[in-house]
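ok trying this again, last paste got cut off
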Amino acid sequence: MRASLPISLLAATVLTGCASVAIDENFAEVERFAREQTGSEVRWLRSDPEREAMRAEVDRLLAQPLAIDDAVRIALGYSPAFQSLLAEAAVASADATGSARIGNPVFTFERLFRSGAEGRELDIGRSLGISLFDLLFLPARLEQAEFRQQQTRLQSSIALLSTVTEVRQAWVDAVAARQVARYREEVATAAGTAAELARRMQATGNFSRLQRAREQALAAEETANLIRARQNATAARETLIQRLGLTPSQAQALRLPDQLPALPEAPMDEATAGAALLENRLDVRIARTDLDRTAKSLGLTRVTSVVNGLHVAGVRNSETGESTQRGFELELPLPLFDLGDAARAGGEARYLAAFNRTLELASNASSQVRVAYEGYRSAYDLARHYR
């Protein structure tokens, strides 16, 4: 037992892997996904020099009007909110790695005295034990941990797409609000000029009081519209600043283009757009992964609900005047009071919930894609109409 126990421990340690390796692999997968889906690089700033270098790069990008791709680049490499998401993904990855590891071996030491007619005797007992149950189910635990790593990667990809979408929307809103504010300024200036002209023409008898009142009312309305447009432009700009995580000095340096990019000559067709949207439904992939994990864990629950522990220990006892005793001991819980029926019923219910949740997401995906495309096409047609 003493010879085989260290070998088993070494094998288990190698199989469960290193948490930092899993974290780096998951981050590499997020980097690859970002390049394929957005064309941008993800930066995980883990030291002060890295943060300083990225801050200098952001300052360089802000030296010119900020393009939408540069805004995405800043968000994925500088925003504290996205950096927090990356750190939380690392925590989830480390937890998944730790869930596959077996419990540490337990060392027990006993030192007992016995007083008798022949004098004082000393008994020393030593044992080193490990959960044989954990070793037997190590492959299943490793499989469950890999499912959790897959979920972590998919959830990180969803967070990345959400961040990119929010930043792009904030950039479009900020540029559009700025355009609207400039337009409202021109209209308000023209309306003010018309109101002044109406006042002068009334003074010379060429305008009635009603005509002058109409021009003054229009000028007042356009002035109010200008105030609201400026407030909307400020709010949209600040939303973009928050999405990018800019400092006050960087926010002051932020400049935006004068107008939005030109519309594409033709919109995407429904088949192409629908295929792209369905392919990127990461929530469906997460649900399927969760279903597979739940199915695998159901079999493990059926076993562990009856027998949930088996410990083996190598024992070495020595006694004054006696030869050393060597052997082993087994510890096995007896299912007398908890027969495991509640755990089995709960596991089966969790599987049914995951199964139906996956069906719901899959059945709703196509409908949601059609709604999304209709919204995209309507927005495109309206933009073309007003252009």
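PB: full thing came through this time. Residues 138-203 form the longest helix (66 residues).
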